Amino acid sequence: MSRLSSDTVHLALYPGHAVFARARGWLLPQVIERGRYPGAPDEALEAAMAEPRWQQARLRVVVSNLFVRFAIVPADTSLASAADELAVAEARFRQVYGAQAKLDARLSDPLSGRPQVAAGIAADALAGLRARFARARLRLLSLEPLFARATTSAASSGGSSRIQPRRSSAGKASSSVTCSGALTSQKHSSASARDSARKAS
Question: How far apart are CA 184 and CA 90, in angstroms?
Fold first, then answer.
């Protein structure tokens, strides 16, 4: 597969199997292959990542809701940035799941002024996924919970509970990936974030 391959692999991970569809084309992609890999996620991924025809393809991943933690975050119009909102979401996860829960979180609709759904994936599990995809030379475009996929499909406006390529200050996509159904930890130092986090806890 060439470096400029137009193939995109859509992969869905469930507790007992993984399913995929491979599409080809830039503007009007057509599905050229579908398949299923049985077994637990680790086994299914090992089989999938061994496929030479996937090399250099773009990748979109949907994970079963069983691998994701969710929490409702109340609206708070006093927060000035998405980073502040995320700090509150992380505090909410600690309140619901305990301080030992190492989750990377993202919100469904940042800075909307409305209550939001926060989605979190275990940080170590996410790091393992990213490492696997990198070894297989797959370019991860997004990773999101099945819940987010279902809701964004129903709402044409889409959502933000997905992993997106991190962009530099110049606007160019970097090789690192953040999540929006869950991911990289960030430092939040604003006073409004700390105040709201205390309220959540």
Answer: 12
Give the burial class of 41: count Cβ atoms within 10 A of its Cβ; 0-12 exposed, 13-18 middle, 19 or more buried: buried
Place of tokens 């890999």: 37
Cα 132 to the chain's mean position, in Å? Answer: 15
147 phi and psi, to 5 degrees?
A: -60, -45
- pLDDT tier at 181, thresholds 50, 70, 90: very low
Cα torsion angle, 66, 148, 107, 126, sign: positive
182 touches 74 (CB < 8 A): no
pLDDT bin (cut points 50, 70, 90) of residue 193 is very low
Residue 3 has a pLDDT of 55
CA distances from 45 to 11, 38, 142, 178 (A): 10, 10, 16, 20
